[in-house]
Design brief:
The chain is an alpha+beta fold. It has helices spanning 3-24, 44-52, 62-81, 88-101, 106-115, 120-142, 149-158, 184-202, 207-214, 236-242, 275-304; strands at residues 33-37, 40-43, 168-177, 225-230, 254-256, 259-269, 308-310.
């Protein structure tokens, strides 16, 4: 069975199991009315069955479960007043679609339900209610709700931080290579040359000019500009060298990648995803917010127009 069937099967299987367990053990269930919704009642046993069906890992709050049951009864009553009941033909068509999508004929479908202690009639009742609530929700909540581009753009501008990307740094590198298998004297000579370049830059000489004169390696051809790099993706030595720097400041010479490096931190930025890339995401978020607010407001109206006696 597919999920669309199992979800309903599981519900009624639990209810049936509870009823059978109580009878088998010979226990006496003392029931009482916990809520009256207009002329309809909700009993303690109804509430307990509903709480058992909760997917929460912890014991559900029965007060919240009861409030949800009250809301559902109010909605079903509203559907009846509006003449939005699901017809037998619509129910039959929906059931046929479910069996077709699960590659089952009606006999096989009935057998599958029976294994879960559920009859087709019980399943139909649950399906009819779900279809009714969906129809009601579409008419009174979803209908007319839309989000235009101006709303989405305003949200984007007011919540730019929510669309930021990881921090990036732009650095400029002066690199002096160490000879392969360098002797101590050779290493000392390269270090001295790096220190000399560092001191020139510290005294105010143009760092790019110094790079053009003494820097080696591929980056020397682009004036040492390494471009923007995500801070958490740069090599460890550069990350350490720039951690305490402010834009425009130099690191002292350090060894990395087979030579001495001097790094100048050029710029720090936190890029933001462009509006075009997040427009659909924002529109969906705003739409869902509007739907939720409309739904809550509609429920409050239903409650205000009804007689509700919560006795829990």
């Amino acid at each position: 069975m597919q999920r669309s069937i199992v979800s309903f099967v599981a519900v009624f299987a639990i209810l049936l199991a509870q009823a059978l367990t109580g009878t088998a053990q010979g226990s006496v269930i003392v029931d009482r009315v916990v809520a009256v919704v207009n002329n309809d009642i909700i009993t303690l046993s109804d509430l307990q069955r509903e709480a058992t069906l909760s997917k929460s890992e912890n014991r559900p709050d029965e007060k919240l479960v009861l409030e949800n049951m009250i809301d559902r009864k109010l909605q079903m009553a509203a559907a009846k007043r509006a003449g939005m009941d699901v017809t037998d033909k619509e129910l039959a068509d929906a059931l046929a679609d479910i069996t077709k999508r699960n590659n089952l004929d009606m006999a096989q479908f009935g057998e599958a339900l029976a294994k879960e202690g559920l009859t087709i009639d019980q399943y139909k009742n649950e399906l009819r209610e779900q279809m009714t609530l969906s129809r009601l929700f579409n008419k009174y909540v979803r209908s007319g709700i839309a989000v235009d581009e101006a709303e989405a753009r305003t949200f984007y501008e007011q919540n730019a931080r929510n669309f930021s990307l990881p921090e990036e740094i732009r650095v400029r590198q002066l690199f002096l290579a160490l000879p392969e298998k360098a002797t101590p004297a050779q290493s000392a000579a390269v270090k001295e040359k790096a220190q000399a370049a560092y001191q020139r830059a510290k005294k105010g000489e143009d760092f790019i000019k110094i790079i053009r004169e003494v820097s080696q390696g591929v980056t020397a051809k682009q004036d040492g500009d390494l471009g923007f790099i995500q801070r958490d993706e740069v090599i460890a030595e550069i990350a350490d060298a720039t951690r305490s720097l402010k834009p425009g400041e130099l690191s002292s010479p350090f060894i990395s990648a087979g030579g001495y490096n001097i790094i100048r931190l050029e710029e720090v930025r936190i890029p933001v995803r462009p509006f075009a890339k997040v427009k659909d995401e924002i529109t969906k978020t705003l739409y869902e917010q509007k739907v939720e607010n409309t739904y809550r407001g509609w429920l409050q109206t239903l409650r205000g127009d009804s007689q509700i006696d919560n006795r829990l």
